Amino acid sequence: MLTLALVLAALQQPAAPPPPPPAPALPPQVGDTSPFRRLALPSPTLLREGSGRAGPRYWQQRADYTIRASLDTATHVITGRETIRYSNNSPDTLTYLWLQLDQNIYRANSRGAALNPTDARFAGQGFEGGYTIEYVRALQRFGQAIGRAPLATTVNGTVMRAELDRPLPPGQNVTLELAYRFEVPEHGSDRMGRERFPGGWLYEIAQWYPRLAVYDDVRGWNTEQYLGQGEFYLEYGDFDVTITVPRSFVVAATGTLLNPLEVLTPTERARLAQALKSDTTVAVIAKTEVGQAFTRPVGGTPTRTWHYSAKSVRDVAWAAAPNFIWDASGYNGVLIQSLYPPEANAGWARSTEYARHSIKHYSEKWFRYPYPTAINVAGPVGGMEYPMIVFCGHRAGDRGLFGVTTHELGHQWFPMVVGSNERLYPWMDEGFNSFINIYSGLAFYHDTVGPGRSPAAQWARAAAAGRDQPPILAADRVNPALLGNVEYFKPAAGLYLLRHHIIDDTTRFDRAFREYIRRWAYKHPTPADFFRSMEDALGEDLSWFWRGWFYRTDVIDLAVDSVRVRQDSTGTTTRIFLASPGALPMPVDLRVTLANGSTEDVRLPVEIWWLGNHYVYERKFAADVVKVEIDPGQNFPDVRRENNVWTKP
Ligand SMILES: [Zn+2]
Fold first, then answer.
1. SS3 state of residue 456
2. For domain 259-297+318-415, is the CATH number 3.30.2010.30?
3. How confident is the model over 590-624, as pLDDT tens digits?
4. Ligand 1 center to 407 CA (angstroms)
5. Which sequence spans correspond to the domains of the chain?
6. How many CA atoms lie within 13 A of 90 on its CB side?
7. How far is the CA of 394 from the centre of ligand 1 (A)?
8. Which residues have beta carbons under 5 A from ligand 1 (an ion)?
9. Domain formed by 58-235, architecture
């Protein structure tokens, strides 16, 4: 019970101390979320340096191949025996090796078969095949013969692990011997295959021998499955290859033909010698001569063996048919060749001209072509590249044929010379190649880029429509419908934008891009190596651009919000309120029009956005400002142009 006395007693107790004054609010605590924060890349090491160079401890494995293969044109079966001399230059002792068995994508139960609709471009389109591996043996260890020790193997889809009978220490090598066979698919994922022409079967042969997977310092064994869309990652080495085909067939392959006396007629040898010295196209087998007996050397067995040697290449491919038209020319000691059936688009008569232009253009502009020959073959494959030889669709002609030829031959630089991982980083070969293709096409057609027609400006449409993914995605993770946009068009447009409109100095850009090619020729660069090498040679921190363009789908949207004037004793100052509501900042090209009719162009560097996405450009002009326009040349892929212009009301 509460009595009055108790209440009074309570009131007489000393009052509780007053609460302490509230602590001042803590300041906001945030990380660096600016688009200009440094791009997080793997820590530099003595293998891959902060400058973007391969460092003094850089190492790379090597695989040298000897392949003896024959093609049975009745069953379409290739039977081969190969030796692979594998040199372990890593600091690691290896107890097993991984090999790529790409043909296993055509097994009915393969992951590629499960993932690709039957009629998809990169599928086998119902064909069931795959490798039969007869044996895998160790022939030599550390240079000593060891008498054909069989090795245990485990196949996992398109890769196979071979257990070494003795560990392979650093600095040593082992020679494996494999015997294998497979049936050539008609549609080999649009990368190889065969097609029947009136004169007989035409074969385009690739992914045709078990190949060493790459063991590198960044990931160890690279064992990504061959699923169709993602291409390849291979070690460099020298190849000695023989290909046995029916006597009536003509073969074209990666490398130098070592036995022309056995497989070519005296006329063909003379024409090839003439072609090598000729700027213009010379017929080796003319259309009127195709398939005639005199085009093949007389006598001997029903088959002929063509023998090739190729140095410092990551792969070997070939084509064979009894009915090739064959023509050739020369550039700087390189034999340029085209082989196509009489049924090919008539435009193929210009293939050698297109190929010669491409090899010459890329050599003079970026890096000298290092191989003895460059061959374009017409067949069922729409467009695919291998060292020294490319396959382009026989239905292509005119500008379409030029485009696919200069693209596939541009791959001689990316990834054949600069040996990036195509399966993980398709933008580093397709994108860089598409970029150099732009200039090859402009040079061939004596063309220029019109206003608003630059690849960068054209990218704005795809970006605005959201037809975009981060190009850094692995090849098989890209939406097949967006592959061309994301891995070809966008990286090419980005480099074009960088060269012409961000760096805005083509000489400085070209020096840096050539430096990247030189530094990583015959090596295995990663994206970080490219970004670092470019920044090092350009003298720019481009974290903001690499992140927004290659790692994300950030868009560019530059805007003029308003214009105000201020009068004081010093005169009239104009304040132009700019904004960058898109997540990807850019330098700003402003065109200011004055009341007296004159215009003034101002470039504001990308650093105007360092403090945020609003910026006030303040100046005194000679007359009233009546119009302000951002990017009047339409050089930047701005996704909303309607906010780029302010006019005085
Ligand atoms: Zn390509």
1. helix
2. yes
3. 999 999 999 999 999 999 999 999 999 999 999 99
4. 6
5. 58-235, 259-297+318-415, 436-551, 559-647
6. 19
7. 17
8. 430
9. Sandwich (2.60)
